[in-house]
Amino acid sequence: MPVRLLDRSIATQYFINVVLLLIILGSFIVVVDASLNLHRYVRYAGEHDDFISKSLATIGIVWNLWWPRLIQLFNFTLGFVLVAALGFTSAQLVARREFVAMLASGISLWRAMVPVMAVAFGFLLLGVANQELVVPRIVGILLADDPRVANNDGKIGVTNLPTTADASGRLFFASAFDPDAGLLEGVKIWERDEVGVPTRLISAESATWDGSAWVLRGGTAQPVGRPGAPEPIDRVETEMDPNALAVRRFAGLGQHLSFATLGRMLSQDRSLTPELRRRLQRDRWGRVGSWVAMSLSLVIALPFFVTREPRNMAVQAAKCAPILLAALVLSALGVSAPIAGMPGWLSVFLPAMLLAPAAAAAATSVQT
């Protein structure tokens, strides 16, 4: 029973520290952004007769813009927050001489860190759920530059579709593209021969995705470069579904899609260029590499804060900070920067491979 009480006490302290750090960090970022762009948000708030209404409208604009970005920011800052919370929790335990009491009662320091690792693992699982279930639903808000667009329901919205090629060499163009509704308007599709010369132009008022093809409304097919009367056409089968078109339309959209969606695109979309395929592979497997790197970073930080004798935690934090910063930067570079000669899915695990020996050395150096 005493050990269970101790576990709950340490887990509660660590959990509170993680939550407080997330709140403080998020609030700091929002306040800095609001102070730098206040004039812009006030302009977006519109005309109001009194100061209170104007202020409330401005706060609403800031909230609508930042709540989805804070959800996304959670995944990027989680590794740093977990280690920082470990430092604060250890400082509290050292200040009360609880580590000394645990050792005197026969409890090893590794056993004392079990509740900390359990809570950290829980937050990592929350990050996984956030990345896979929540972020894909608010991708439209994350891509919006106008704070007023953040009032929508998370859809990407309507935009144009520049000329985009599929695996068969056909070129797709649309004056309006709604990826959420699977709708194209002002559609033009050029079919080409093996050397890239257009042979037929398919035009339609609109096209709707039915799961395997674009169903055309008012579709006609006109030969290019030779005489021939237009022929009616009602559907164009292709692997270019709305998600595939959206990834090509919006740079960086892959990091907002779920692991399963990216896997389906990589396996079914044969029109992906080698560069785009490698980028999507990094987007897909990079999140796994980041989660592994976060876990290893937490293990690397343990010897600095979990000590048998009382130490100055500020000094220990100063020693840990450069190593932690290098680990997090290495992890971020591994996800975003391609490595020549390595597949995209493998290069993202290089930081974890480099951190693994350091984590093993750190784990064995804890004096329990």
Textual characterization of the structure:
The protein has 368 residues and is an alpha+beta fold. It has two domains: 231 residues, no CATH class; 93 residues, no CATH class. The protein is built from 13 helices and eight strands. Strands 1, 2, 3, 4, 5, 6, 7 and 8 form an eight-stranded antiparallel sheet that branches. Helix 1 packs antiparallel against helix 3, helix 10 runs antiparallel to helix 11 and helix 11 runs antiparallel to helix 13. The longest helix is centred in the N-terminal third of the chain and has 45 residues. The chain is elongated and about 95 Å long. The mean pLDDT is 82.
| Content of β-strand | 5-15%
What is the number of helical segments per DSSP (H or I, 4+ residues)?
13
Taken from the alpha-carbon principal axes, the silhouette is: elongated
Helical content stands at 55-70%
| Total beta strands | 8
What is the count of structural domains?
2
Rg, nearest Å: 27 Å
Mean pLDDT across residues: 82
What oligomeric state is this? single chain
Q: N-to-C SSE series?
A: HHHHHHHEEEEEEEEHHHHHH
Largest sheet: 8 strands, antiparallel
Unreliable parts = none
**Beginning-to-end CA distance, first to last residue:** 22 Å
Structural class by sheet pairing and helices: alpha+beta
Keywords for this structure?
single chain; alpha+beta; 8 strands; elongated
Describe the secondary-structure layout.
Blueprint: H1 2-36, H2 38-45, H3 51-95, H4 98-104, H5 109-112, H6 114-134, H7 139-143, E1 159-165, E2 171-178, E3 183-192, E4 198-209, E5 213-217, E6 220-223, E7 231-232, E8 235-237, H8 242-249, H9 259-268, H10 274-305, H11 313-336, H12 344-347, H13 350-365
Antiparallel strand pairs: 1-2, 2-3, 3-4, 4-5, 4-6, 5-8, 6-7
